[in-house]
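Incident log, entry 3
Record: Potassium voltage-gated channel subfamily C member 3 (565 residues)
Problem: checksum mismatch between cached and fresh output.
Input:
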Amino acid sequence: LGQIVINVGGVRHETYRSTLRTLPGTRLAGLTEPEAAARFDYDPGADEFFFDRHPGVFAYVLNYYRTGKLHCPADVCGPLFEEELGFWGIDETDVEACCWMTYRQHRDAEEALDSFEAPDPSGAANAANAAGAHDAGLDDEAGAGGGGLDGAGGELKRLCFQDAGGGAGGPPGGAGGAGGTWWRRWQPRVWALFEDPYSSRAARYVAFASLFFILISITTFCLETHEGFIHISNKTVTQASPIPGAPPENVTNVEVETEPFLTYVEGVCVVWFTFEFLMRITFCPDKVEFLKSSLNIIDCVAILPFYLEVGLSGLSSKAAKDVLGFLRVVRFVRILRIFKLTRHFVGLRVLGHTLRASTNEFLLLIIFLALGVLIFATMIYYAERIGADPNDILGSNHTYFKNIPIGFWWAVVTMTTLGYGDMYPKTWSGMLVGALCALAGVLTIAMPVPVIVNNFGMYYSLAMAKQKLPKKKNKHIPRPPQPGSPNYCKPDPPPPPPLPPHHGSGGISPTPITRPPWGDCGRGLPTGPHAPRAAQGGSGWARNHGAASSAGPLGALPIGSGGSG
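Fresh output:
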């Protein structure tokens, strides 16, 4: 027949077989093949194929076969639509351009939600328990218990833990036995103590201490430049005379010294940062990824100059003084420790994600500003020359814009509506150019700003939603019967050979009773990603009973009576 009936989630759809053949290689195209009744869940009584899938999404899928245009439903979550497309064997790139942005929104939201992972207060304990259970060889039992290791496994994954045992997360010396057990038990706890402020109460105290020392270090760095904490001293140093045979001469050097107590405070802060850095790198599950982190690089670069300065402070050679001068310049890296606050404040992380997501808008803004600066700097240079004194060739007497590069500075200040007032036009033509420059700057900056603000609002709302999301409880998902259990769906044994006719009194010939082609399992096996492998055999399209029916009945069991068996 030319028509075919497909029952999806209880909703019957009827179409032509030729319609399903428009997309060969897909699941629906397989329904038109001669062996489709054996490969799929086919009901001969109703003459229909059954799929336990989302009926609303299937309507859009079927319309794609009819019209050749795939649209995304507005009332369906993006991941669900993506999963349904994968089930029916349709490529996501076939989605129409009008619905592509709507379809892609869920992936952007998922990436943002993953970056704002909600902290789990019991995460460190679960991770440690998971490590202990792994050491005891209890993974299967814990998994069978309904999720004892599921939540802990997610916590281990969130904390970037790998399976220890000589790998990146193993003990430093690669030792096994009791040492490996100790390492597995305490590594996730110590790592969470310094990495995840929400893992335990002790981790919160460590986070508060780290925040305190960061603020103290930055405050000390700023006070070191204040004249109230600086002492200028004259030191007389006796050095050899450059003239051979001349007696040594005294040279007076002017040195700038900081208050000693600021140095002591900075030393205490550096000791804490050193301790924190060593603990984190020791118990880090992946040393390579740890060293690649920009925040960890800032930690290391901010700590080293202090120790080098302390080690070279007693030397008086010129080379040592040059190195000390360089180290004092490098100490400005200490101010970058403020970025470590992103571990504790969601708003700073939101700002970082917003800047990364708005890279294209920032580049567009820079290009617009560069074009405007070039155009208006050139215009103001020639506009100020109109009506000038012919004898004043350089324009030194009547204008500030002696050349075009100087006009670049004026154009930037004007387009950003800053207006320092150090340079301004003096002629009517120059004032007209200045007005146009200011208007162009307002319009140029106003165009990409709404996109950046929308990105910040989206990331901030997602971050707040992730933090306020309630902790998911372990859902009861029944596991398929396991081998050895009473409900396990065992294949039928091969039929025994027919019994010989009983030669006693009243022998009765055996009467065969044919079993259904589905064996003991019946039609109740689940399908889909959580189905047993027996129900997903073959290409993944066939149900268990469908695959069995292609092989024919499994045989007959004779039943006989009479005689003295």
